[in-house]
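Hypothesis: this fold can be encoded by more than one sequence.
Test: take the structure tokens below, design a sequence, compare later.
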């Protein structure tokens, strides 16, 4: 029998492994852990998004603190470069390797986590901040839709917004029997819960293990990497040209 005929579909609904809900739940839990890690141990900042840094840069400019304002360009630039490279690399990767960019990215994030665990508490906090700025941006730009629903895997703001929208629709459609909105509401609510759970775990482990606590994220990252590798090399072999939804 032809080998390609024996290959399985990505799953019953046609979604790729890199689009599965549990992958997104896991990644946003890690993001919550990162948030606790950088806030508690690396300068009292959140590196998963850049709104705060842009505001602080604007405040520094308004106060005439030019050197401080220029400093904020460092994390903002790291985030920008993360998006830049994650947009350019998928095609070269799939042409040269039997893997998707999504899979390679998880491996890159794991290497970054291993390196960060060796950074001593006395080191400049910018080392950890910029590294997480960079990998968070790549992750945000790479993992875009979970089983057809647009998602963010590095911060919670949009999930809170979508929960508010979903609850409004619940009120609007009360008694009408319309339930289409509930799938989306449920997914965003679960993503928010996983983000909070990751932050809780990050707080607990950072208090006990300090900087090496970040190595705990290698466990969920490892589970994601194993699933993506198995998909690329077995169940979804030869399907690297198929783009995940949202790309």
């Amino acid at each position: 029998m032809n080998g390609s005929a024996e290959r399985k579909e990505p799953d019953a609904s046609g979604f790729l492994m890199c689009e599965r809900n549990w992958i997104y739940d896991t990644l946003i839990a890690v993001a919550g852990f990162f948030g606790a890690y950088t806030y508690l141990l690396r300068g009292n900042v959140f590196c998963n998004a850049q709104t705060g840094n842009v505001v602080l840069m604007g405040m520094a400019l308004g106060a005439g603190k030019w050197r401080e304002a220029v400093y904020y360009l460092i994390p903002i630039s790291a985030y920008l470069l993360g998006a830049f490279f994650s947009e350019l690399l998928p095609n070269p990767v799939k042409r040269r390797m039997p893997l998707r960019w999504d899979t390679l990215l998880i491996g890159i994030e794991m290497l970054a986590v291993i390196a960060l665990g060796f950074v001593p508490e006395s080191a400049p906090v910018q080392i950890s901040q910029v590294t997480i700025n960079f990998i968070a941006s790549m992750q945000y730009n790479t993992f875009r839709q979970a089983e057809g629903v647009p998602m963010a895997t590095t911060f919670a703001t949009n999930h809170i917004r979508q929960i508010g929208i979903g609850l409004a629709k619940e009120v609007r459609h009360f008694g009408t029997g319309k339930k289409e909105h509930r799938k989306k509401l449920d997914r965003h609510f679960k993503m928010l819960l996983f983000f909070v759970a990751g932050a809780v775990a990050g707080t607990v482990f950072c208090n006990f293990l300090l900087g090496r606590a970040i190595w705990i994220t290698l466990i969920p990252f490892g589970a994601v990497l194993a699933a993506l590798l198995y998909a690329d090399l077995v169940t979804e072999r030869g399907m690297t040209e198929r783009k995940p939804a949202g790309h």
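Residues 1-7 have pLDDT under 50 and may be disordered. The first strand starts at residue 145 and ends at 146.
Hypothesis status: open.
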